[in-house]
Amino acid sequence: MSGTLHAEVNAHARWIYTLDIAPDTGKLLSGAEDSFVRIWKLNRNGESSNIEIEHCHSECVTDVQICGAQFCDPEGTAFAVTGYDLSEIIRYIQI
Prior knowledge:
Layout: E1 16-22, E2 27-32, E3 36-44, E4 51-60, E5 66-71, E6 78-83, E7 90-93
């Protein structure tokens, strides 16, 4: 790691508390206090070595400040979410 910033995205309106990578597909999951989980596709540009970021999906977990989220499989086709004052884990499957 060089410590060099390669990409920056203004993805959430509140603090981001969780990030996860799906290793088989290069998807990035971000979850924040703004009640949103967002999924991004990361690609490295072969010519410039820059990282390209494509937004793939957003999911609002109504009235929940998200404090944890993680992909459930290496392909990133399902993810689980939990939040402050939430006594359950919610699982989402992308179709």
